[in-house]
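To whoever picks this up:

The parser on our side crashed when reading a file containing two proteins. I've narrowed it down to the boundary between the first structure block and the second sequence. Both blocks are reproduced below exactly, byte for byte. First block:
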Amino acid sequence: MFEEGIYRIYKTNMNLKEEESLLLLTDREKHYLVELMEDFINVAYSITQKVRYCIYPSLKMHGEEPPEEVWRVAFGDKAVDELKKAQLFHKVLSKDSYSEDDVIEVIRNYAKDVPHVVVAFPYYSTTHTLFRKLLTKVFGCRYASMPLFEPQMFEGPMDVDWNQVASISIDLADILTEGEWVHIKAEGTQLEFSIKDREGIADTGLFYQKGQYGNLPAGEAFIAPVEGSAFGKLTITYSPDRKLESPLVLKFRDGAVESVEGFDTYRRTLEDVFKRHDNARLLAEFGVGTNPMAKRPDNILEAEKIMGTIHLAIGDNHTFGGTNRVPFHTDYVVFEPEVTIGGRGWQKKLLEKGRLRI
């Protein structure tokens, strides 16, 4: 029953061609994702015969590197074996300290039959991983990342004028690139940080050029704030997949979450992550939603795309212009914000009560 929506992903969003190879990825976190894989495979064979897939054990956290079996199906056994021989592979999977250039050199020399297109719909995100970065940056793969995807998204946020979404997202990304600082006000939220010399990125939903990647559903412009620059507080009312019973307040100092205040049980989830990975506290991303058909607030994949919202993430950002490397990345949406962006000698009201002003 989802064949039409899947076909639109392949042809409208990914521009998949007969001569191109496709890799499909999901995890075992949700039974409906495993069942959906069969539909993705069947529809893919109507376009190309070069189809691979992998269904892997759930990693239980957004931003974790996918497991060894996924690396092998993407890059080949020889590349993974050589990374292990160079004592790099374990460091990559755990996001320990390592030379990214050394990893790239091994992958370039030994990878074989790297796919042209990847459609990844595991419950836990692969977007902010070196795995994705190597595929897109080194090999020019076009990569759709669909964490938390639910089949009903084929309607609504996936049934949209993608050219309109792309146009707005690109314009916003240009403004972010030009800006040097951001100030945010909303109910329970007041936060400021630097974006100087960082590059805005448009998540357009149209992945036609080599190396393009983003979410599906798409529709945002985002940027990595300068590490150490965030001050203020962020009030969150939703976790990535549910409405909180009561709001939590994340207090930022020197770019990182200094404390979490509130009584919802999600507080313990965050504090447990912070105990394991102290740099998971860092502000990682600022984004603005641009999809007019996105509506749901209780699923972050769709919620962060709602036009007129903003989202802020903590954790990893080293794959899109930042410097923080950690096996964690989670976004939080702010509704009806007032956002001012500026630089030397200028400032602009970007959003006012949740309405874009571009």
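<<boundary where parser fails>>
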Amino acid sequence: MKFDEILAGVGNILNGLGATIVLPFIIIIVGLVFGLKFSRAARSGLTIAIAFVGIGLTVGLLGSTVSAIGEAFADASGTGLRVMDIGWPAASALAFGSSVGYIIIPVGIVLNLVLVAVSVTNTLNIDLWNYWHMAFVGALVLFVTENFWMALFAALICFVIALFLADWSVPLVRRFFKLPGISIPHLQSAGYMLLAVPFAWVLRKIPGLSKLRLDPDTTRRRLGLLGEPMVLGFLIGLALALAARQDTVAALTTAVNIAATMLLIPRMVGILVEGLAPLADAASTFMSKRFAGREINIGLDAAVLIGNPAVIAGGLLMVPVEIALALALAPLGNGTLPFVDLADGPFVAALLAPLVAGDLLMIVILGAIVMGIGLMFATQLAPAITDMVRNSAAVDLPEGYSQFTVMSDGANPISYLFYYLYQTPAVVAIIVSLLFVGGLYILKEKFPLGERLLPIADPDAKPVSA
């Protein structure tokens, strides 16, 4: 059996078992390496797996509820847009169904361990199932170049980019979400964050805008009961449902479902943090004994961030904004109708919210800018994605549309950049990729996000001015 076939077999086994089966074993192994007793490592692994089950259920409820609202908005608007967003399930099927997707998990794990060992990154990415985002870029490059090795190179470069963006945003995650020892190598959310940073810097410089203080904590203090996260979720859900012309019963159901997610997701994240605490402490002790001044951060899905009220509220408000943007940008070349991935609003907002200290107005403005650009990206990638999905037996296509795209990754600036970059000569694509990664490395080392760049208050220190 060839080596690549062995890697493909390992990848298929891990992917087939699923997160809830494999994750506890990964946590146990990592915990034992960091010096935890087996009993504590096993407890930590099972607790984290249970937390992800809970997060998955509540995020699923949020996604189905938002999808229903988005579908109603799209039907009511009569868009006439020609490109259908078939969403992340189709993108992940394309990614893991490609020759790159077969081996991305085992190769990615090995690459991550090497980069941690040589101190290039401090993120240990255990979010195995979101490796598909890197594999999706690899599948795009394979479509362009018909060269497996160039596609694998592109996917692994994206893997490194995700690690570096996770390192870069560690202070942001620690200070805003109060999640020490965690980083977010989620290429979708991190890619939008990278695009949003210069716009966030401008927004924070606009006189008077930040002084409005429309973050959930300030709103709760000002409005009392009406500012409570679950009540705020109920009101936002009800307003969106009515605006989407749902009937009374459906609107109330939507409102209660959104309120439930506003209450339950933070509770699930709390269980996750409980499970991660022994692992994070052990990692810190392990690194301090062997590598003075280094820390290892556990890389997780951006789903662990969406329990924050500002993230959920901002993500919900993005639903009508995305539909409005799609219509407004049609004369400028947009052909994409946001549909399945409308439910991804909280994942878009996950790393945008801390850039503007959780201010809801600025989150929506920032999200509108990022997704407005993303709609144009997704439209330009539609011909390639359409050909890819038509040649794939893993994707069922809706009728009535001539072209298809995926907002989750088609709108991501990294996917867009690599699609066009790898249409250049191979040597140019390789050199530019390496320069891009080198630039990100310097950026993360010299200008950590949330500290030197776009600083936000540390919960254990005095507030820092923007």
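After patching the parser it read the second block fine. Residues 3-446 form one domain. The two ends are 57 Å apart (CA to CA).
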